[in-house]
Amino acid sequence: MDPQESAPAPENTAPETPSRRTGPFRRLSATVARWSAPIRIVLGLAIVAVGVVFLLVSMTVQTIALVTGIGILLAGVAVLLTAGEGNGQDDDGSASRPAVVIVARVLGGLLVLLGAGMALWPVAGAPLLSLLLTIALIAFALATVVRAFRPGADQRVTGIIAAVATLAVAAITVFWPVLTLVVFRLGVGAWFVFIGLQLIVRAFARRSPATNAPRRPWVRWLRTIGASVALVLAVALAAGSGALLGGTPLPVPDAFYTPPADVPSKPGTLIRSEPMTVGVPAGAKAWRILYTTTNQDGSPAVSSGTVLAPENPGPDPLPLLTVSHGTVGVVPGCSPSLSAAPFADGAGTAMADMVTEHGWVAVTSDYIGLGTKGPHPYLVGDAEARNVWDASKAVLGFSELNVSTDTVIWGHSQGGQGSLWTGQIASSYAPEFTVKGVAAFAPASNLYALAEAIKSETAGKTVSAYIAATWDKVFPELNVEKSLTPGSAGPVERIGGLCFNGHDGLAAILRGSQVPNQIFPNALLDGPFGDKLKEQEPTGPFPAPVLVAQGLADPLVKPAIQDAWVKARCDAGIPVDYRTYPGLGHVELVGPDSPLTPQLEQWTLDRWDGKAPTPDCDHLPSG
């Protein structure tokens, strides 16, 4: 050892200079450098703990914001601590600080501030907190890149990989702004665990300031492998999020759906038909049809639909099943006739049985705006009913089949409201038909009460988005889109472009889950818009026996709302056969294994045979 290194320093009596005044800070820096490894280990363990809490503990939005803020703050401290790593001048207290070190410390300070803001203000709201988190992650990624290119740094590729992984996690926070979703928690929680472990590994492997010994090769490989795994997982989560929320490309209506120049003026006139081969049940044959109908305001329009018939229909008139389908979306491309499973909607199993086993013909309207030019009159009862009746009228002029003018009407969900309205306007709009029964499964019978009950729930936000996207065009005088809650216009536009079936159905629901507030403000529900919602309630009278089926585990159409609607009809002297099914949700109610399926088929056959109905107004659920 050089003797000068151990000799006491001579007393300095020179006047204090600006550089000398930094002495305490230099000594503090040197102290931190000596205790750097233990500090990093404790800090790394704390960040890992935050990630584990994210992954394993169920938390409220506010708690998630608090924990996230703590984690970001700790990450900022880690950036400040490691800003000069690899630059001996900075770590041993030198006043010389390269620009990259300064930038890294500025970014570290920003992380500390952002984390503190999130932790101290957890009630700021999910979108703002998500924005802060996105900024923090981008700042951390930049700090990681800056550290990778500072003087004396090694493993720059590893640093860049870790930075890209962080940016991928930032993308996840953009996709999932509401902080309660599992995907968000998994992505951010795993990121915290990764950076915490990375900090611990660096602490154990940090080269000694005295010897400047190189890191062991296994440490370098461990860091590179860890960063690469983090990148793969983060990119997979980000890509998966994009795929889930993006939905699938919509089918494009072809020339069949474009009406000719000389459209007949009479509603219910068949324009054209063509055979269908995809999704047709065994023992049946099908066609898509294009026919005339009317818009909500009574102006002429064109709609499409489907016809399902027995494979060998015979010459005699066949019983007619008039079907009003449930929610599939609100834009062209969402129509059942364009779907790969065109006859699976609602009570699809029961409908196929009625056709293939009992010899009925089922006709379903796509409604305006789902295959043809819109706007689609979503949950506008009278307009839907006219679309449905005009499809059945068009089949009367279909040369391929001979159908009866006696009919039974079915509908599920949106179609349940539609079937009730179809029955309600039968005598005035379609007097040539004799309605023998009206069946509605989980119908949106009281739209205003439904909007009130589910306005803050995920499914309710999705349905509200569909209403907002269409009613602004159907009822322009209401100015619906200009009256939505702040931040809802963008989600409404994105949800409105998604269908509600198959993969797109999941995307629409997930998009709805990311809307932080109810879409319709209370003031809108209390005004003319709310009045218009109330006008969509089918109140009767109905020309035939009515069956209403309701699953008691339905998260969308609340059983209590249905109970109240049925009771009001019974109190008005309208008999209703009301059947409830414990444990069944909105979709399960009409599933192939539902007890409703065989009951519905028998109830329909009984109506056709003229058997006495079975109303049960005296046995309604107690409210």
Can you give a write-up of this model?
The chain has 623 residues and is of the alpha/beta class. The chain has 3 domains: 21-208 and 215-246, no CATH class; 277-444 and 539-618, 3-Layer(aba) Sandwich (Rossmann fold), CATH 3.40.50; 449-535. 49% of the residues lie in helices and 11% in strands. The chain has a 9-stranded mixed beta sheet, sandwiched between helices. Strand 2 (284-294) and strand 3 form a beta hairpin. Helix 3 packs antiparallel against helix 9 and helix 12 packs across helix 13. The chain starts with a helix and ends in a 15-residue tail after the last helix.
Q: What is the element layout, followed by pairings?
A:
Blueprint: H1 3-6, H2 23-34, H3 36-56, H4 61-82, H5 88-91, H6 99-120, H7 126-148, H8 156-175, H9 182-205, H10 217-246, E1 270-276, E2 284-294, E3 300-310, E4 318-324, H11 348-356, E5 361-365, H12 381-396, E6 403-412, H13 414-424, H14 426-429, E7 434-441, H15 447-454, H16 458-474, H17 489-496, H18 502-513, H19 522-525, H20 528-535, E8 546-551, H21 559-571, E9 576-581, H22 596-608
Parallel strand pairs: 4-5, 4-6, 6-7, 7-8, 8-9
Antiparallel strand pairs: 1-2, 2-3, 3-5
